[in-house]
Amino acid sequence: TSLCALGETEEGIPRLHQAIEIGKRAHLGADAVRGYINLVSSLKTPIDDLAEAEAWARKGLAFAKERGAAGSMVDWLKMEYADVLIRLGRLADAEDMLSEVRTGWSLGVSGQYFEVSHALLSVIRGNVDAAEEHLRRARELAPSIRDPQAIGPQVGVQMLIQLARGEYRPDDALDVLAPLIQDASTYEGLVLTARVYAAAAVAAA
Asked: What is the mean predicted confidence (pLDDT) over 138-165?
């Protein structure tokens, strides 16, 4: 996953395939599913191959069903798949996939991801009040999590909500992001979110 994030996809993707096979051979269903999760995640970001990401999400869910795997790892794979569907513009399919998630209301990062996914769906559909409510619940479910992987999407959705309301407050985003960015090249997604937010504010002015 780290190799893919660094652009070394020709080495990173085969390692993810190998990880899945190791999990299968060792009869470690949840760990194999984790391999599918990271493969789908790498294919959608940073590789941006959504068709391939969807294909592997389907394979991972089929494997989980075949092996009787369940729980948070399978739910996380469903949320990754839902994110792929949102990016493909298949909003109804994404909502259907999220409806299958069983751990979504739990405390911690799983619940946070679940609510942020719903917030993104809502704001894209123009349901700004609902998006704000989902984002509020996301923060309540995981108030102490400061992982950039979790904070970045929250700030991105908050940006979209504010743009939908005609409000432009780039300082809000920058205040959240700045303490997390020790190395700009490491948190490229966060830097991009901050830049988009600031550009929107300049355009509004």
From this structure: 83
